[in-house]
Amino acid sequence: MxxxxxxxVTIILMLISCESEVKKESKTEKFVELIIETEQETKExxxxxxxxASIGCIACHQPKSxxxxxxxxxxxxxxxxxxxxxxxxxxxxxxxxxxxNQTAIxxxxxxxxxxxxxxxxxxIAAYILSGKY
Length: 133
Ligand code: HEC
Hints:
mainly alpha, Cytochrome Bc1 Complex, Chain D, domain 2, about 0% strand, binds heme C
């Protein structure tokens, strides 16, 4: 009888420790996944950011201050919850809503974003709306 109790307790202990091992492993896996995701996000941000700079947008659109064009923050506020509208503008299909007195200055640069593929345009729109410049 005593032996049986010891045997049962041992089995239970083994099962418990086994389960916590599995939990630990899945936690580690999740952590690794999180790190990989974060790294990928950072890479995307860097490439969109450098694209935004290399195609010349940054010359007129600074993150926070208005120089020639409205700041990225101002554009992001105007297009808050309206990513589709921003993509349409970048594709030459939308009306300007930010600074209606200066649309002539922006018009030639829509050609640049119009020439992009859909994914690139969406990336630029997401970058503008992200608030992380
Ligand atoms: C020579 C300066 C200049 C450059 C370069 C420039 N912009 Fe602009 N942009 C402006 C001005 C001025 C406005 C304000 C007029 C307007 O709202 O359309 C503007 C407005 C915008 C808007 C807001 C549109 C709206 O609804 O009113 C977006 C979005 C934008 N620019 C994106 C870009 C992107 C992306 C690039 C790079 C391909 C770029 N701009 C390059 C001057 C510039």
